[in-house]
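seq as requested:
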Amino acid sequence: MTSTTATATALDQSYAADRAIDLAFLNTSVLSGIDPRAFQAIKPFPFLEIEGLLTRDGHHALLRDLPDPTMFSQVFGRRRRYGQRSHDRFVLQYHPLRSVPELWRDLVRELQGEPYRRFVAALLGRDDFVLHFHWHYTPRGCSVSPHCDAEWKLGSHIFYLNTASDWDPAWGGETIALGGRPGLDPRSAPEFEDFPIQIASCPLGNRSLIFRRDAESWHGVRPLECPLGALRRVFIVEFRKASLVNRARTALGF
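C-alpha cells:
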C-alpha cells in the first residue's frame, strides 16, 4: 500500500508493534482523581496542570509517531481581532479522512469515548459540547499574545509533546495563566506585563494543561527562544459549544 507520507514504513512498523499489545492511552486513575469542585474554584480562572494523564507506553508511542511537519499549514501574520499580535505557528487540524499516524487516531477515539467526556463535562459543569482536535508546532521567535478565547469555546486541553531530549526549559514554551485584572475587556490587547498574576505550566514530559474558558481566562505564551529548527509541539482538544455552526466546523475539520 502506498502512503502519502515519507515516514510510512516507520509508522506502520511502530504502529503494528504497539497495536499488538492493545495499547491504552488515558490513565483512568488520574482522570478519576481530579476533583471537579476543586478545579472550578481555582483562581484566577479554572486551570490545572496534570501529570501522567497519558499512560507511559501510550505517551512514548505517540511521541515516536508524531505527525510530520510537512503535513501542517503555515499560519503566520494572520490579523487577530482587537489588535492582538498574530499567533504564528504551523497547524494541523484533525479530520477522520486526513492522513495522520494511526496511533493518533486511536488516541482520538479514546478521547471521544465516555470516560473522557464524563471527565470534561464534570469540569465544565455542562455536557453540551463538541470536541475538536489539532496540533500546533511553533518555531523560534513566535508567541501567543495574551488573550481570552472566543465565547464559542468552553475550554481547552493542551497536551505537551516535547521532552528534555528536544527542548530546553530555558527556551520558554510555557502556557501562562494570567490574572489580577478583573473586568479587563476580552476585546482588548494587553501585554504580559499588564498582569500582576502569572502562573506558568511546565511544557515538558507527560504533562497537559486543561482550563475552562470564562471572561477572566487570559493566557498566552511568551516568544520562544529556541534554536532554529526546534519546535514547540502541542496537541490540543477544544471544547466547543454545541451550536450548529460549531458542529459544522468540526465535521469539516476546522
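The CA atoms of residues 62 and 221 lie 24 Å apart.
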